[in-house]
Specification:
mainly alpha, 3-stranded mixed beta sheet, two-stranded parallel ribbon, 8 helices, 54% helix
């Protein structure tokens, strides 16, 4: 009986050892919870971060492309068109497209005067002239020729109103010669034409040719 009890205890101890060994093997072979979590988090963090960064970069690039693709210009179309006004067109459009937006040419429009293939720019004013206006512009150099002429005249030295310092800005005119010009107009009255300056002592044809484009009366 004692022999049987001892044998039974040994058998039980053996069974417990085998069970513990089997549990240890399973534990060592299986993935650890902590390690598995770290792997998952690292993967999610790395992959997700790069993906988010790439997505953000692509979105920004896409927005830039959309913005540049939809850029536009505002132009003022007036004159001999059917519907004058300010119109918005895509950048790179041509004058003929702006005229079309304004209802097309009017009955008296000088269609030949404008370069219809010219590319528009933002803030551009497109004035379509009548036939009569176009003929005048060709002779005077454009619709703003008069104002341009006035501006150029203002930059010139007026022989009848300029003081000594202003006259001395002219090529070859020193202090004494400037005083001679002032004395001449005081004694003989205002200059009637720029050529009259050659009546001043010491100013001859050569001196006049140097300053003729810089003086007015």
């Amino acid at each position: 009986m004692k022999m049987n009890l001892k044998l039974l205890k040994k058998l039980r101890m053996g069974t417990l050892i085998l069970a513990a060994s089997a549990a240890g093997i399973c534990y060592s072979c299986g993935p650890r919870n902590g390690e598995e979590q770290e792997i998952v988090l690292e993967t999610a963090s790395g992959y997700g971060g790069e993906e988010a960064e790439e997505s953000s970069s692509e979105k920004s690039s896409s927005q830039e492309m959309t913005s540049s693709g939809q850029s536009s210009c505002f132009v003022h179309v007036c004159g001999q068109v059917n519907a004058p006004g300010v119109y918005e067109l895509e950048a790179g459009s041509r004058i003929y497209q702006a005229v079309e937006m304004a209802g097309g040419f009017g009955a008296d429009a000088a269609v030949w005067y404008l370069n219809l293939a010219q590319e528009i720019t933002d803030g551009m004013k497109i004035q379509v002239p009548s036939v009569q206006e176009a003929e005048q512009w060709e002779q005077t150099g454009g619709p703003r020729a008069d104002s341009q002429w006035e501006a150029s005249q203002e930059m010139k030295v007026n022989l009848n109103t300029a003081d000594k310092e202003q006259l001395m800005t002219l090529t070859g005119i020193g202090e004494s010669r400037a005083e001679d010009i002032i004395r001449y107009r005081q004694e003989h009255g205002p200059f009637e034409q720029i050529e009259d300056i050659m009546n001043v002592s010491g100013i001859k044809e050569g001196a006049f040719q140097k300053i003729k484009d810089s003086i007015t009366v």
